[in-house]
Amino acid sequence: MQRVFFFGNGKAEGEGLGKEKLGGKGAGLAEMTALGIPVPPGFTIETGVCAEFTQNGKVPGLEEEVDQTLQRLEKAAGRSFGDPRNPLLVSVRSGARSSMPGMMDTILNLGLTSKTIGGLAALSGERFALDCRRRFLQMYGDVVLGVHKEEFEEALSALRQKRGVTSDADLKAEDLAEVVRRHEAIIQKHTGKDFPDEPREQLWGAIGAVFRSWDNERAKTYRKLHRIPNDWGTAVNVQTMVFGNRGETSATGVAFTRDPATGERRFYGEFLPNAQGEDVVAGIRTPRPLNADGSGASLEETMPEAYRELLRVRDLLEKRFHDMQDIEFTIDDGKLYLLQTRNGKRTGFAAVRVATEMVAEGLISKDEAISRVEPEQLVQLLAPIFPADEKQAAIASGRLLGKGLPAGPGAACGRIAFTAQRAVAMAGQGDPVVLVRVETSPEDIAGMNASAGILTTRGGMTSHAAVVARGMGKTCVVGAGEITVDYGKGELRARGRTEREGNWISVDGTSGEVISGKLPTRPSEVLQVFVEENLRLDQSQIARSFSELLSWADSRRRLGIRANADTPTDARVARVFGAQGIGLCRTEHMFFEESRILAVREMILAEDAAGRRAALAKILPMQREDFVGIFREMGERPVTIRLLDPPLHEFLPNDEAVLEKTARELKVSVEKLRERVQALHEANPMLGHRGCRLGLTHPEIYETQVRAIFEAAAAAIQSGGKPHPEIMIPLVGTRAEFEKLKVLVDETARKVTAESRQPVSYTVGTMIEIPRAALRAGEIAQKADFFSFGTNDLTQMTFGYSRDDAGSFLPAYIESGILPEDPFASLDTSGVGELVSIATQRGRQTNPRLKVGVCGEHGGDPRSIAFFHGAGLDYVSCSPFRVPVARLAAAQAAMSEGKEGVSSTA
Ligand code: PEP
Ligand code: MG
Fold it and tell me: How many CA atoms lie within 13 A of 847 on its CB side?
């Protein structure tokens, strides 16, 4: 079985074998060679021998195979290993299936020995030969022999100092000879041996180091983070050296076949004349552009022939790989060589644009375009951003305050407010505000809404702040534990800085960074086109690509996509992003509005049902208006409205000043109000008097809400609409709970219809968020029209983890591998998922017409969506800003199943 694959002179033994066998780099070299692209000849040792080699230190027969291939290489290169007159020098590089920073990277100039250095000097000059030797000793010493690279660097900089020069380029041949002697001495001191002076010994040292680097700590950590299997192994690439540092007719550079930031179809890259690859990466010299920019320094202007050849290569590569490529090249005395090609990493913007434009260019199919874009990347297209250079400069100047979880992508910059009330007041004065809290609660909604960004120091990805911020499309960072908030002093402290209310702060919800002071932001074009409508579609390339890609996705998915939306504004955003209905309208969010919280509190303070009814009568018209607005926005699309869910105490003030103010407004004594707050206090409110339990003990609350819904629906019909309300009962655990409340809904509907003489078609269903309800789904479904999995609560109750407090141990669980990831962010498919499957099956068994969806946060998570697709759900519902993500993820789920997706009507 062949394990070593030669490439050179237009022929590649590994052509078509792919990354699995040859690693990404090896496969790219083989394909480029076969395409007739100039690639220095070499060979690849396949990934499959990595494990055996690291375990036993050798692989039987491999040495002979390498020897034979080496002879072919010598022939192709016209040079021999160890030849004192015309020595073959090679590079040795690692290359796994997917690029893996953390593994050994590169050794250059291998083959340089005391016997061959003279030959190289005769060919290319003494200084050049010594510089090659110096680099070789450094790289080999570091990665093969384990000598700290700082020691080499110190030796080099000591000599620079002694000579009074700042750049290595100013060192003369005799200086470099001195450096070489010092490097050799360092190696001798560390290893107790002379530096290996025999090319084959050097080669096997390097091959062994590459294989072993697969198992170094950095590589292992990287694999764990990126779910790369440990048994893949790395390949080893041995390739003839070419030199970009042989003078002004030589150069080295990197390029992307399209712009990796925007996706624009233009050649993009940079180069350094008279340099080796590491010089570009090291960032010591400023690279120059490839394309002519009028400076006269570009590759196009200084080496037009090589540039033209590079353009030809670019076309060949895109035609062969059907994707944007990231390439490395070297120009050796005027002649271009390609050293690497791989699919280029890109931003969400570039991913979308490249995918759609490649369809238009006939390079890929629509299905390929759909599968090319990571659904999560779409979020970037909706979020405002900080320009990268400005942010880096701020961080470099020490303004970073800390890092938390990136809960709501985007960039926000505003004045610090430490309470929701102050946020509202300060926002009213004109400047944007960032609300900074230890954590948020429903009371803070108005403040959150008024803020440009939200920062909490506690809490995880489904904490209140994270969920609400994502729903609002707000920039949000949660759990920034390094930052201490001191409400008493009205300040935050972090990294030796203190920030007070009113100070400017910048929050990057895409990276989690929190920066002191002001940074400029740019709004997203996609938002300007679709939501703000102040930019036309024909003015925005990215908005066109975005909507094109999503329309293709729609034709491939089976799952319906709905949105969680509580207001007409949210509903509109959901609709323009393509939601086919509302899967969850949380009515309690309407209760918190400034204008109605007082009536809600009056209701809670009432002594009896009659008192509650009187207060509810004030809420009814307001709630009706909300529904009228939502029905108007959603037209004929279904709207699932959940009756009140949270425990009542959440609506009462918990801060002394607000308590006093509320008592005054309600004309009751502070004592009475405090008494009621205490009476409603619960040890664990999430398991307490909430959801349908509230509806059953205080039926007038649900009656009022249902009345508001049906009056609104009747009004909508009278003005020509066709509303489809779906009434949803939260937190059901038993059939009796659901049955009783369904009767309440039906009776109230009948009453309103009798009054309005306007029949309304509606359905009544339940959330499945309690494990018992999932298990007893068969009997609940007999009376229910639909199920909607509230996977936030279902996860909480299945694991027994509180949604609000799990942040104190979940990170440790994930870190130590007890849990693979946060189950509140991505569904625990084996546990919670099993309950979803069981409930779906049992529910459909007794009620084949049962419609089944999900409205927990998982409805917007691509991996969870794949699971829901497989479990046969009818739709997923997520926050409006995640609707595009869900559309794409649902299409990918359908495609990966290999089935034709049929677009559903949700
Ligand atoms: C849920 O529990 O998944 C849900 C959608 O309801 P909430 O998050 O409002 O509790
Ligand atoms: Mg819930």
Answer: 19
CA 843, 845, 846, 848 torsion-angle sign:
positive
CA 208 / ligand 1 centre spacing (Å): 54
| Ligand 2 centre distance from Cα of residue 769 (Å) | 6
User: Can you spell out the DSSP letters for 816-871?
Assistant: TTSSSS-TTTS--TTTHHHHHHHHHHHHHHH-TT-EEEE-SGGGG-HHHHHHHHHT
Rg of the chain over CA atoms, in angstroms? 33
- State the pLDDT at residue 901: 42
Q: Specify whether the backbone of 422 is left (phi greater than 0), alpha (psi in -120 to 50) or beta.
A: alpha
- Give buried/exposed letters for 830-866 (b at 16+ CB in 10 A, else e): eebbebbbbbbebbbeebeebbbbbbbbbbbbbbbbb
Token pair listed for 177: 């000879």
Tokens of 586: 């949380």
Q: Answer for the pair 39, 338: CB distance below 8 angstroms, yes or no.
A: yes
For the chain, residues with pLDDT lower than 50 are 283, 899-906
For residue 793, the CA-to-ligand 1 centroid distance in Å is 6
Residue 433 sits at φ, ψ, to 5 deg, of -125, 145
96: enclosing H helix or E strand: strand 90-96
Say whether 464 is catalytic.
Answer: yes
Take residue 51 and report the two structure tokens written for it: 């494990």
> Would you give the DSSP letter of residue 720?
T
Per annotation, catalytic residue among 183, 464, 724, 858: 464
CA–CA dist 510, 376 (Å, integer)? 11
For the entire predicted model, the pTM comes to 0.83
Bridge partners (DSSP) listed for residue 851: 786
- In 567-620, the DSSP E strands lie at 582-586
Token pair recorded at residue 896: 């990966």
pLDDT digits (tens, 9 = 90+) for 452-473: 999 999 877 657 888 778 667 6
Q: What is the largest CA-CA distance in the chain?
A: 105
Atom 8 of ligand 1, nearest CA residue: 792
Nearest to 904 by CA among 889, 882, 887: 887
For helices 126-143 and 149-163, the axis angle rounded to 10 degrees is: 150
Tokens in use for 727?
């009434």
Q: Ligand 1 in contact with 695 (CB < 6 A)?
A: no
d(CA 524, CA 18): 38
Would the CB of 564 count as within 6 Å of ligand 1?
no
Residue 294: count of CB within 10 angstroms of its CB: 7
Are the C-beta atoms of residues 345 and 326 closer than 8 Å to each other?
Answer: yes
Name the closest ligand to CA 589. 1
Q: Give the integer Cα–Cα distance in Å for 238 and 73.
A: 10
Residue nearest to atom 10 of ligand 1 (CA): 793
Q: Which distant-in-sequence residues (6+ apart) come within 8 Å of 496 by Cβ?
A: none
Q: What is the model's pLDDT at position 516? A: 97
Q: Which of 413, 855, 858, 869 is catalytic?
A: 855
State the pLDDT at residue 282.
52
CA distances for 384 relative to 379, 546, 564, 885, angstroms = 10, 16, 22, 17
Q: What is the pLDDT of residue 699?
A: 96
Distance in Å, CA 66 to ligand 2 centroid: 63
Q: Is 858 a catalytic residue?
A: no
Nearest alpha-carbon partner for 48 in 17, 9, 15, 12 = 17
Q: Are 581 and 904 in contact (CB under 8 A)?
A: no
Nearest to 89 by CA among 336, 255, 309, 332: 332
Q: Is 856 in the pocket of ligand 1 (CB under 6 A)?
A: yes
Ligand approaching nearest to the C-alpha of 794: 1
571/639 Cα distance (integer angstroms): 10
